[in-house]
User: Fold this.
Amino acid sequence: MIKKITHWAELNVVPFLIYFLMRFVWLTAQKKIHHITPIDESQYIWACWHGELFISPQAYRKLHPKQNAYAIASAHKDGMIVANTIKYLNIKPIKGSTSKGGARALLEAMNCLKSGNEVLITPDGPKGPRHYLNDGVISLAQKLKLPICIISYQASRYWQLRSWDKFVIPKPFGKIDIYAQSITLDGLEHDEAKKVVQEAMLKHTII
Assistant:
């Protein structure tokens, strides 16, 4: 019984508390969004590093507040906590990952995109290596001929966890510079496209 209650709390209470903290930091921070390229109402595949999930989904909703959105999230407990947290931002989960056993998740993501929805991906998730770009986001973008929109950020003050992704939690009342960049992969071979996206994602991230 205790295990069931604990499991329920982990998947329901913890996501709400995380979301509350996310919103508190977001609302108290001095934020500036830098559009490296124009970001309009077009459909994108969105990408951010796993360690930046505290801010990036909120930045996405600032840029695209009304679009129907899905996010690929691991079916493991940590991924379910993430999925249940971003539901508060009206981002629905796609269970799976872009690496281990990711074929079903990528197929579902492709179907979502074909239906006109947007998909958010952490290409180094769910277990890393940190800042390593898995192939899934590139394959989706090239097959569907959709641009990838990268979100990254720099924070003036932050905590950084000792997890594999060195998860970043900006401190309240600090300054956050958010960078958004759209990349079109037309005419690029897979490896070349991967290199372009990898370099762009690393340019403004917290190392």
